[in-house]
Each structure stands twice: as C-alpha cells, then as structure tokens.
Amino acid sequence: MNGMGDLHDVNGDSFAEEGIGDEEFEAGPDTEADDGLLEDLRLAAGILDPVPAELRQLAVEAYALHDLDARLAELTFDSLVDAIPVRGAADPPRMLTFHSGAVTVDVEVTSHGLMGQVLPPQPASIEVLSGPRAGASLVADDMGRFMSEVAPAGPFALRLRAGGEVVVTEWLRA
Asked: Which of 30, 47, 51, 67 shows a CA-CA span of 20 to 30 A to 16?
C-alpha cells in the first residue's frame, strides 16, 4: 500500500497505482442525468408536499411588487361588481379601470384577448403578468391604446412603463 494521501477503492487498491490521475476526477457532472433527477424530485415534492394555496397566492402578490419603485394602480371599476348586467348578453366583456396618481388604465377583457387605453394618452410598454412566468409584452401607441389577442388565464396584473414611471395594477382573475 502507498502513503495515507492515496485514494483507495473498496478492494483496497490504490487509484494512483492504476494510473487514474486527478484530472479524471475533475470531469464535470452529467448534466442530463442531473436535470432528469431534479425534475423527478420536483414532481415528487409537488405530489408529496404541495405548496399551500394561500402561500402560492402570497407569492404571486409579492411578485407584483418586485419593482419597488412601482406605484400600485387601484382597481376603481370592475364590471363584474359595479355594472348592471345586460339581459341576453351571453359573454359580455369584463371592463376594468385602474387609477394611480395621474395615470388611468381602462382594460376590456374578453375570451378573445384584452384591449385597453392608458390615460392621459401616451406611449407605454405594458407587460401582462401571470405569476412567475414571463408575460406578454404589449406596446401602447401615441393614443395610449394597446391590445393582445391572447386572453389572460388565471391571476393577472399589468405593469406599465410610461414617462419614466412604473405602475403595476392589482392582481385579478380573468
């Protein structure tokens, strides 16, 4: 046997005697196997120890505030709550109005998408937030109008960047 610094396998054979150098131990991990194992662990954790719905909701709401300089736009009108239902309307659009300081955002949500306007009219970039996933990016024209042909699914909020300000709406279910 060699000195105490040598590595040995279960049979007591020294790796140094077999010509295995340190460079072979420094080889990178098998990333495909690791990715598969991590995915299996995520699935098992999701089944055996799911995230409570209340904690998930808190996480979604906290994500909306990751722009610390963003102002929160308050929901001031929701047609589901504030409007008188129209008789015979099978699938009426949901009308929403948000206010934050001098900025107002009117949004119409339908099963075919959403459209809206930033007031006072101004160009803006708008991001449709839908939890931790990256949302759709929209652009408001000079009149403040924007549109998406994809209806939000589940909880959503809007993040507007206009005139050097960042405004985030409250989270709502589509």
From this structure: 30
